[in-house]
TrEMBL record:
PANTHER family: ACETYLTRANSFERASE, ACETYLTRANSFERASE YPEA. PROSITE patterns: GNAT (PS51186). It comes from Candidatus Clostridium stratigraminis. GO terms for molecular function: acyltransferase activity. It comes from the Bacteria. Keywords: Acyltransferase, Transferase. SUPFAM superfamilies: Acyl-CoA N-acyltransferases (Nat). It is an enzyme of class 2 (transferase). This is GNAT family N-acetyltransferase.
Amino acid sequence: MIYRKGLFYEKELPISVMVRFYEPKYKKGLEQVHPTEVFFTLDELVSRVSNNHHLLLAIVENDVVGYIYYEQDIENKLGEIVLLHIRSDKRGKGYGSLLLNNAIGNLINCSIEQILVNVRVTNYGAQKLYKKIGFIDKETIYAYKKVLDSLILG
């Protein structure tokens, strides 16, 4: 999906929610949000944070409820939303929209002109969120996997 520039709007933050860049003091809380079935372990994700790779957290009463990890390529004016996760008991409460809008705002402030996100075709909730924020479908990429029978060597 690709972001349609010009549809960005900032939402006012509810008083009880803070959006903060990652700091090591939040790692334990982040462990409660980060799924095990993604391509980065939590340690790998945290180690990637840099001037062009950002990790924003949604925090409610000192409790991490979600995060967004995004990257920017300033030279090519390209941004990418890599991961967005909200703790399962906090979904549907606006935290994903809040994090996404903050990340988009940060990217726009860095003169990024195009923002991409990859979403599984079966992840209807994420597709709905991204479309609501202003992303449109660009292309569909198909990925296949094959389960191989185990070989028994004798």
